[in-house]
Records
---
Amino acid sequence: MDLPDYEDQPDSRPIPPEFESFAEDGPFRQCQVCGCPIYTTEQPYLIERAFKKDEVIFEYAICLDCRTKMQKQISQESQTRVDHYFHEHVDLIQRREHLMKQSDRRLVDWIDHCIITGKSREEAGEYQIMSICSADHMLYDYLPMMISAEAMEEITKLLSPKTKDHLDGFVDEFLGLPPEIHNLDLVIL
Ligand SMILES: [Zn+2]
């Protein structure tokens, strides 16, 4: 999504337990796609974790190079529809401004409610959280955020069949998930 960069640097804080890997029992250390080290280098990476209540459904970290390559596989019309959907439901710029004004960075302020539906994690039941990290720090900028499975399903419906195939291919190849979990969102930001 096309969002303006800010002149002020994003705030960075140590990665909270919410964005550590369940499988690794600690921080994510490698890009799930290319295997490059992420925890010991400065190259930023995206973490996405999906939960059903307290249970982790899937999780991965991906370096921004790989993410950019994946984003290029998203068709223009899919991207336009997704951008439009976000525009209609949330003002990400205002959200960022509002949250950055707060003097402390309480993770709960950023990820406790779905940015689309406004439902809390508890109400949503099933949801994904995502953040951008660099080495052992998490950046507060447009992310971190939470999106409920309900909203994610709507977003997935906006994707063209071809784009959906690409994302499903990613899931099959790199995440090793059961086929019913295909509502991955790798489109945002
Ligand atoms: Zn990578």
Note: The radius of gyration is 16 Å.
---
Amino acid sequence: MSERVYNFSAGPACLPESVIKQAQKDLWNHMDSGIGILEHSHRNKYFDKVTEQTEASCREVGNIPDDMAIFWMQGGATSQCYMVPANFLPSDRTADYFQTGKWANDSINEVHHYGTVHICGSSKDKNYSYIPKGDQVQYSDNPVYVQFTSNNTIMGTEFKDEPATPGDAFLVADMSSNIYSRPMDFSKFGLVYAGAQKNLGPSGTTLLIAKKSIIENPVRELPKMMQFDLMAKKEGRYNTPNTFGVYLMGQVFDWIKAQGGLTAMAEYNREKAALIYDFIDSQDFFTPHAAKEDRSDMNITFKCPNEELDALFIQQAEAKGLTTLAGHRSIGGMRASIYNAFPREGCVALVEFMKAFAHEHAGATA
Ligand SMILES: Cc1ncc(COP(=O)(O)O)c(C=O)c1O
């Protein structure tokens, strides 16, 4: 087997090769300081530069307006499930949430600590295989904000457009698994968060992009580590941040720029996903999980005719250097995660393997 394989992991996931190679050098000696990036103080001039560069690059790549703060926190995307209602939701008010899978449910389940939750749209009836839209969406009266998960990592569904917001409500998005996979108009959002470990870098850092006017006045008194505004004003350095995570995110933003930015990234991602979806649509051995119009370009979910064949597929794919293809336990089958850094050749190799496997097991039944 080659030194590196095609890693279809949903996250932590594969990173751009050039970024890893640069990081290998910087682990030893960062910016000619004689000190490796893991060993630098988060308050010295070298890390000032890292912070400045990561923020500037993030702003440039995402075309983030000046009235939005960019910062990072620890505790994963999961901590944002309570951070959002803690900062924004008064105890006598309601927030609306789209229920589109496990990650959305994790957020929904934390709201009651602070206020009232209203499910404004749900795809639970079909094991989250589609995105609620049109008359499947019913907002509450005057919600403070509307939250959605822009890409459902486990189910393989993706919002193609952000949902509308009623009245004065602002939009909150968990973009952990599709941030910076395509251009998005961030000015439409009150707050966006994303765990870094899919499209942006290593685990242990969460990127936040938030309207300054929205985070300025938390609705209740909160411990310092829970105040968005403080974290933003301290550039994510109120306490010791995951310095390596912030550094690597900066490298990844620069890599996206070098690929031609988000428009080029989107074309590349569309092309990679189409290679696999076009094959799935052309045959009847593999069944996709997600509804066609809501399919994700990042996570592709599909099944063989029965579970024994799913297990054999995963095992034989692994032996061919196509690794980490098992679907999440809640839906089974397979999941191919093909984030920004995942190479096109890996998608071609997967389709070749799928073709051969389907041919070999043609006629298999459920
Ligand atoms: C969409 C989404 N939200 C939240 C999470 C949870 O992230 P973390 O493990 O960083 O808390 C994940 C993890 O895969 C995810 O895919």
Note: Residues 2 and 321 are 8 Å apart (CA to CA).
